[in-house]
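User: Predict the structure for this protein chain, please.
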Amino acid sequence: LIAGPNAPITRRALHSIPELHGLIRIGCVFRQGSWQLATGATTLQPGDRAVCVCRAGNLPDLQNLFL
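Assistant: Here is the predicted structure, written as structure tokens:
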């Protein structure tokens, strides 16, 4: 997924986003030409690409975080 310009996922570090806790995993982020592992301290920036994993039922929540 690609983080939108005003996406909620870009507003704070991953560890402080309650929707992610145990439901959605962000594995890595593509930024400035290279892949980086995502940690709890990672904050996505608009335009960042992320590899995400979730159950089908959590897909709408994941999409809302990136739009």
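DSSP finds one helix and three strands in the chain.
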